[in-house]
Amino acid sequence: MKRTGLLYDERFLLHKTSPEHPEVPERLIAAYQGVEKGGLLPDLTLFGARRARQELVEAVHSIKYYLRFEEECLYGMPYFMHPDCQMSMQTFEAAMLAIGGVVEAARRVMAGELDNAFCAVRPPGHHAEVNRAMGFCFFNNIAVTARYLQSEWGVKRIGIIDFDVHHGNGTQLIFEDDPGVFFYSIHEHPSFAFPGTGREFEKGTGPGEGYTLNSPMLPGQGDNEYKETLQRDLFPAFEEYKPEIILISAGFDAHVDDDMSDINLSTAGFTWMMERIVDLAEQHAGGRLISVLEGGYNLQRLPELIRNHVSLLLGR
Fold this sequence. Notes:
This protein has one domain (about 5-315): 3-Layer(aba) Sandwich (Arginase, Chain A), CATH 3.40.800. About 40% of the residues lie in helices and about 15% in strands. The protein is built from ten helices and eight strands. It has helices at about 25-35, 55-60, 65-75, 90-110, 140-155, 170-175, 225-230, 235-240, 265-285, 300-315, and strands at about 5, 45, 115-120, 160, 180-190, 210-215, 245-250, 290-295. α9 (about 265-285) links the parallel β7 and β8 (about 290-295). α7 runs parallel beside α9 and α9 (about 265-285) runs parallel beside α10 (about 300-315). The longest helix has 20 residues, at about 90-110.
């Protein structure tokens, strides 16, 4: 069995949104209950979050953006930059804890203390750009962690897999000119889904050209189409790139029962996808894999999806 870490911290629940907002604290409670009721806790290394150092955040986000977010949050503004990005006075602190927690998971994996980890965090991050909050995201958790791995561990090849049903525009934009990060995203086609980016011709720029790969999926597609697409696009690309560590933006909103998309992945489809990603990590990255929660809004389905996801990390 793998040495799998679980990042969970009740302080993430202090980031409050309105009851009708999709990204609510109950999402995290449902995720934790899935792991707990699935009997996985005794086999996991449970750890809480540490507040991120400001300089880590500034490796991705500008200081002006950082200070504006902090200030507006403390003033009690109802949202930051866009009505989608609702917040409470504790949101900035929760966002700093989310980054710090994911970075701590990366440190433990790189130090050999863990084989892999699942980070149950909120607010999510993959839509956040250098100077812009959007899509429920304020700081880009995955991007800051990748920069940390580059600067403090000297990792030369980082693979990011984003299977949230919405394209990870922030992550792509941050690394589009960096050959040290291969960004892959499979998501609902941008003609039909937020944020309207992630088309097949978006392949990176300058020295990073060829290290961005998007697989947009038409509405109504499900397990078979996802399997064919991942076998055609992701697996050959990562077999050639040979990442030293894999980071996952794990969104579960492509599930057929999730109202946030028109993609029809089943629970079994998510299991198949994660099995293959774990195999990729074993083949090319010494098993080093860090999964970070992004979307997934059906509170009835989320417990089983997270339970299965963490079970696969454990090697069950």
